[in-house]
Fold:
Amino acid sequence: MQPAVVAHRGASAHLAEHTLAAYALAIDQGADALECDIRLTRDGHLVCVHDSRVDRTSNGTGRVSELTLRELSELDYGGELGVLTLAALLGLVADHGRDTRLFIETKHPVRYGRLVETKLVAQLARHGLATPAAKAESPVVLMSFSAMAVRRMRAYAPALPTVLLFTQLWPILRDGSLPSWADHPGPGVHLLRRDPGYVARAAERGNSTYCWTVDDPADIRLCARIGVRWLATNAPAATRAVLGAG
Ligand code: G3P
Ligand code: CA
Structure:
């Protein structure tokens, strides 16, 4: 089976990351799924921003955690006015009529700690997304580099699938096993270049792999060859073309 294509921050090779336009383009490009990072504003709203500050991605300055939704909404994000809220992104996914999964990453450490996961699960519950009939059919997947955050995701929303992201293949993970609260491993592609057998070891233990962030054709082909299940990329159409060309 070929890897599913996950649009990383939308089709962010083409349009400003974490904008509605970048996600709409990703859907148009045939992405199977979307990826976003979320943070809490000062007044408790979940917004899709990667960095702790808005300086890199907007015409403003300051920490997301110290700005209100209104203040964030007055900024320009690479040509799109207003910060993308998680609610708006969920709306886009619901409205476009094709099954497109959303991989939602919480960033840590952050000022509001566990409140991010608390608010996230509450919001998903309001959208009817917190209790899918089966994890394999869940429209949303939760993930984090923070083990504590993934544990909380499992505790607060046991029906939702989780990905434990990692930048190092810690000895405890090396044989492909995972802690009970994580469903899928999420290695960076640099780890799979060094240890391509990891994906098979994880599969032997029933764990299918999510890999990030894969734009280079050689990496895409590597991921396909070793059996990566989900491949996060900034360029969904180009990635699909490489996969299609075998
Ligand atoms: O999809 C996981 C990947 O997004 C993790 O890295 O820094 O791009 O959030 P980062
Ligand atoms: Ca991310």
